[in-house]
What does this fold into?
Amino acid sequence: MKPEERMLRREDTAELLSRCVQCGFCNATCPTYLATGLELEGPRGRIGLIKSMVEGHSVSAKTQLHLDQCLTCLNCESSCPSGVEYRRIIDIGRAWMKDRIPRGIASLLPRVIVSKMMSHPRGLGLGFWVGRCFKYVLPSAFQPYLELPRRLSPDPSPANETLKTVLLLKGCVQRHLAPAINQALRDLLGKLGYRVIEIGDADCCGAVGHHLGERGAAKAQARKTLKALRPYLFDASLKGDQAPIIMMTSSACGLMLRDFEALYQNDPEMAEEVRRIHQYTLDPVELIEHHAPEISNRIDHERVKGLNLKIHEPCTLQHGMKLKGRLTALFFSLGFTPSQGKAPHLCCGAGGVYSLMNPEMAQSLRQEKRRDLGLEGEADTIALTSNIGCMLHLDSKGEVIHWIEFLRGVFKEEP
Ligand code: SF4
Ligand code: SF4
It folds into this structure.
């Protein structure tokens, strides 16, 4: 029996599945159900398929298709009144499916390429280089990932008073496509008095492998992140109040780090390490909101006068990390008056690598989200988000930007 299956046959699998009372409330907030109207394209239907699979009934390519079409946006988790942990159930379903339903070459090849590239960052750099050379013959779903990196912001100023240590992960895709986002956070935290250590040795945190339902690949990708963080997690001089903060500017990566506990469940040797990572990991909004009064005095509101400011809170932030409304509230507390559109809970279709694997559904959700955010016609609209995947997917000409870059751009040097 594979280690993966040992984990999946644990006694609580049945308990996880039994919590679903099949009421169907979740269907009302599921983007794929709303787009198709099909029961098997909604969470209740998918949970039914997974239950049937783990109970030993036969599975087919149809099951694979319906699980592949799930964005893992976790909107269903937020709307479920019974507390069903859909994220655990879909992980179980995808792992069971992996060895039971062979993939055709058209589905397998892009998964293997993306998974291997993320496990070998030099390959990722080379992949971007080759991709840019062949930009105009590649499908449109790849285009957002082939733009040249955005311009860097000015060098960070040194911290004048150390509050705490922030371990800032460089990320994988982001370091190639938008290094200015991390630079802006470093700069901002330095001005607020934090000591920022950028962790460059960690590559993909495992989120890509996880999104593809490849548990083994996710662990292989996570290994370097764990290795890079380990010395700080057990540094006796950084205990209690001085324990470091682990941070990344992509909310998808933040969610993955917090969910390392699930990736390494049933692995007692890793238990303390992943517990500390969960405890120390913060999304930037959870730190910056404590400094709102100080920052609001230093915002150059003249520079943003007349802007139609929108906030797109990624699913990983609102449904994954359960920080719904916090980014919008932060901007209100800083003196802005942003809006979120009529359906802020719905996914934009980026879904990690979903937009590469399921371009049709991803494009349809993108168009809806762009319309809802006013990016299709409302003048002077800028949408702020907290995840590079959503940013690249939604953007067309620089009107979707990371909120940290925006904040750094309007931050006055002197109060
Ligand atoms: S996941 Fe929750 S909301 Fe959806 S059918 Fe099951 S119990 Fe109902
Ligand atoms: S994770 Fe998102 S797409 Fe998947 S079933 Fe839940 S709401 Fe639907």
